[in-house]
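Continuing the series of single-chain predictions for the mutant panel. This is the parent chain; the variants come on the following pages.
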Amino acid sequence: MASRQEAESLTEEAICPVCLDFFVDPVILDCGHNFCRSCITQCCKKKINSCPECRERIPKRNLKINRALANLAEKARNLSMNQNEKENKLHCEEHQEELKLFCETDKKLICVICRDSWEHKDHCLLSVKKAAEIYRDQRKSSLDSLRENKKAVLKTEQKQKRKISEVREQSSSLQTRIAFEFSKMHQILTEKEQRLLRDLREEEERILETMEKNLQEIQENLISIEEKLSNLQKQVEQKDELTILKEEASRSKRINEGNHTPSVANVDLSIRKFNGPLQYTVWREMLDSIDPAPVSLTLDPNQMNSRLIFSSDHSSVRFGNEPQRLSGSPETFHVWPFVLGSQGFTSGRHYWEVEVGKKTQWIVGVARESVNREGRMDLSPENGYWTVWLEFGNYYFAVTSPSLTPLTQRVNPHKIGVYLNYEDGQVSFYNADNMSHLHTYTHAFTERIFPFFHPGWNIDGKNSAPLKICGIKGH
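Parent structure:
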């Protein structure tokens, strides 16, 4: 086998001085220098008619093939390739032998001498080719798995993009609706303001007209008095006694006929009616324009449990110690002290408020008409209930799957607001004291939805207060 030095020497002899690569179809010039046929031909085309090595003139068409050099160049090329291939192979640092085996146990390449050592005794050994095939197959499997994972991630990415687009569309729609709703309120307030200002101006004109007329009478009376004062002053200065007596008789008659003093008109009092509880008055008028305005609900005695007690107007409910005699309606709740509102909804937007006060337990929300009314019930959206709860006096939560959703409150609400948007499939709950949001359910409603109430159990007399439906509209 040729040494590295021999290979390098042979390589130097087989290199063309023009292209600096192994000779290809070498030719020899008269001067004895060798070049690739293509290299020297290119020189001639560039009108370089001398040898690139010694600059001796090259006779035309006098290029002789050097077959010995061609064979040498071919051998040098093969030797160089074999040498590079050998150098590219890994060798054991300890034994300087080619690494032909792979230790599966230690996960490392070893040589045949390492194989027989104590270190790798009883280890699982594979040929490099076999190990490479195994790990190549594993990489292919991992590659397939990663590609499937990529598909799943891309699918998730598309889903997330759709969700982002939906949120943006919903936000844009809500912004438009908010602007529209406030525009309506601004219009109502503007119209009310303009109407009040117009009425105030008209009342001002009416009052001022009366007062100006009265002022004119006062001024005319003042002129008359001044004239009388002037005449009387002249009479006082009169010297003739008979003239004084004659004018005295005439003056007494005039005084009796024209002695009238007009009073100050007090009609300005009527303008003070515009200085009343202006904001409250406007708010009461706006209730008829609000959609949805808080509605006055009543409780349905045909859809209640026998342990519940209603107020006379069916607007409040509390838990009773003894069962009540009921009508035997099939819509009553047989076990749990639940009751539905007397009015159900199949469309539209509706809002009502329930006073919970300082009760320690209650449930409020909505339920679909077909809910189960017998036995133990799971008050979940899957079973037709969308509610919020209070337990133990301070634990508020919504019933969601797979677990409950706690509702954090800085201050315990005195009233709970319930908002139902049937078409949008939305049920939202608010702390009606400050209208802070508590929780929102979404569902595609397909049947009548009723308000739902549970006043809670009266344990040790600590939860005896009723739930009260707050009647706002019309009050």
